[in-house]
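Aim 2 progress. For Phosphohistidine phosphatase SixA, the working sequence is reproduced below.
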Amino acid sequence: MKLWLLRHGEAEPRAATDAARELTRHGRQDVLHSAARLAGRPLGAILASPYVRAQQSAELVREALGFTGAIGIAPWATPDSDPRAAVEFLSERGEEEILLVTHNPFVSELAGLLIHGHRQEPVPMATASLAELDGELLVPGLLSLRSLHHVRHH
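Predicted structure tokens for this construct:
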């Protein structure tokens, strides 16, 4: 199984609520830059936090890749969600390759949990960073970090 973790692109600093913050122009460009790394991958699903910036990021990736499926809503993938709950949900999925679009600190802790088996070594994820994890089973401590791509800001 391959799990791609994408942190949403740069978002506006303020909105009525944190969940309502939208991507900036730079954020959109950065997400498209990361999406290009997924070109040709046989993604079986794109899942995203219900927050606006994550949904916008997922939609940009979906369009860039020509992915025809709907974006799955992942209410368990918000900034302060428990990564263990995400592991439970994701381990029940049948797709070979999944993209999850989400937030910090959640995404950094989830990656650390899957790679190391605990949350004390989070993987640093800047906005629009893309991590590639894979392993036989989606079990904490049993996935390997294959690549970690950070967008270079000008």
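The chain has four helices and six strands. This observation will guide construct design in the next reporting period.
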